[in-house]
Design a protein that fits this description.
- This protein is an alpha+beta fold and 366 residues long.
- It has one domain.
- It has helices at 24-39, 68-88, 138-148, 155-158, 187-194, 221-224, 247-251, 317-331, 351-358; strands at residues 3-11, 45-51, 54-61, 112-119, 124-132, 166-172, 177-183, 200-207, 212-216, 235-239, 259-262, 268-271, 273-274, 290-298, 304-309.
- Strands 5, 6, 7, 8, 9, 10, 13, 14 and 15 form a nine-stranded mixed sheet that branches.
- The longest helix has 21 residues, at 68-88.
- The radius of gyration is 20 Å and the shape is globular.
- The chain starts with a strand and ends in an 8-residue tail after the last helix.
- The protein binds 1,3-dihydroxyacetonephosphate (2 copies) and magnesium ion (MG) (2 copies).
- The site of one 1,3-dihydroxyacetonephosphate has 15 residues, from loops.
């Protein structure tokens, strides 16, 4: 068996109720269509999940990354689900479908994409993380901890296969440029950039021998549409075990619910709360931001075994409790930074209109 591609393609095509969750009818439609695609041999296997109001399509196939058939399959599902969402009057139907016409690739058209083509190992455990009410920068802290922090990942110290470190591909989403850092050699330089998680986003992580270890979705939806249309709730694929960090090392950073951008109206900082599939329905102030983790084994012939609901575990209860405490504290700030995002991130909200209205009332200070 040759290579298998794991493609995770997601979109918000209508929320139930408001932006809080996903109506089962949309998931049923997606499952039905993916079953047909599997029958027709377009894909090998699939799973359908949701995180909040985002529909998550997990697919395996042998067509490689950026394949038009795969992207069209996802696009057609999103447009079909949008029609159902419109009929049902679901909220923000077609929110992430920014264009009527499909051009061969869903990138830049609204949906989020993370794909990796791999030579499947005899046992290939992967974790697909899916978040709602946040943006791809949310993974920076997580990926740094998993692949570069020896206090998180014991394997960096004690596993000979991890000991030489990893390579991080970092995107400048404003300048549309990328740079690759070697870790641990260049962690201080890299942290200067990736600490600014709305500007520099980790796209991929590689082992030093070039083997892909992780890939994130990096669409900046608000910027693509030229106006605010919702946060680009991101996904992340991470390979685990034998030559990669262990499953538990990959989950470990989520025990500390770090602050991410998103939450209410995509305009607030809040803690990223790890939850089981059944609790991925952000309610309080449309949040706090959520992340689910689907553990999957990929077989040699590209079939999916799973998912296991990795955060459905009491060992993450304390993280959830801590996230609620942090949520209380952050909420108390109301419209004040750093709960509300800084001005640069507010550009696609009312800020320009308010500035336009007030501009003649600004007079020199002296
Ligand atoms: P096992 O001995 O259960 O395979 O675990 C090894 C490991 O890497 C745990 O993180
Ligand atoms: P979504 O990006 O999940 O649609 O949320 C948008 C929003 O405004 C939440 O308050
Ligand atoms: Mg929505
Ligand atoms: Mg969403």
């Amino acid at each position: 068996m040759g290579k298998v591609t794991l493609s995770v393609i997601k979109a918000d095509i209508g929320g139930y109720v408001g932006h809080s969750s996903m109506h089962p009818a949309l998931m049923d439609e997606a499952k039905e269509e993916l079953a047909k695609a599997k029958e027709r041999g377009i894909i090998k296997d699939y799973r359908v999940l949701h995180c909040g109001d985002d529909l998550e399509l997990i697919m395996t196939h042998t067509k490689g990354e950026d394949n038009p058939d795969i992207h069209k399959t996802a696009w057609d599902i999103f447009t079909a689900c949008t029609e159902i969402a419109k009929k049902m009057g679901l909220y923000g139907a077609g929110q992430d479908i920014l264009s009527e016409a499909f051009s061969g690739n869903v990138k830049g058209m609204g949906p989020g994409v993370a794909e990796m083509e791999i030579e499947v190992r005899p046992s290939e455990p992967v974790i697909v993380f899916m978040a709602d009410k946040t943006s791809p920068g949310a993974w920076n802290f997580i990926l740094y901890k998993i692949f570069a922090d020896p206090f998180n990942t014991a394997g960096l110290v004690i596993d000979p296969k991890l000991h030489s470190g990893f390579k991080f591909e970092v995107l400048d989403v404003y300048e549309h440029k990328k740079i690759v850092f070697d870790t641990p050699e260049e962690i201080y330089d890299m942290l200067v950039l990736i600490g600014a998680m709305e500007h520099y986003i980790i796209k991929r992580v590689f082992r030093k021998d070039g083997e892909i270890a992780a890939v994130s979705s990096t669409q900046k939806l608000s910027m693509m549409a030229g106006r605010y249309v919702g946060k680009d709730d991101p996904v992340l694929i991470v390979r685990t075990q034998s030559g990669f960090p262990a499953v538990g090392e990959v989950l470990e950073p989520f025990a500390n619910p770090h602050l991410v951008a998103g939450w209410m109206r995509g305009s607030h900082h809040g803690p990223l709360m790890p939850v089981g599939f059944g609790q991925a329905n952000p309610a309080r102030f449309d949040g706090p931001p959520r992340v689910i983790a689907a553990g999957l084994q990929i077989t040699q012939d590209g079939m999916l075994v799973g998912p296991r609901d990795m955060f459905d575990d009491p060992s993450f209860d304390e993280a959830r409790r801590m996230a609620n405490v942090i949520a209380n504290y952050m909420r108390a700030h109301g419209p004040f930074e750093p709960h509300r995002l800084g001005l640069a991130e507010m550009e696609y909200t009312t800020l320009p209109q308010v500035m336009e209205k007030l501009k003649d009332r600004f007079v020199p200070e002296e």
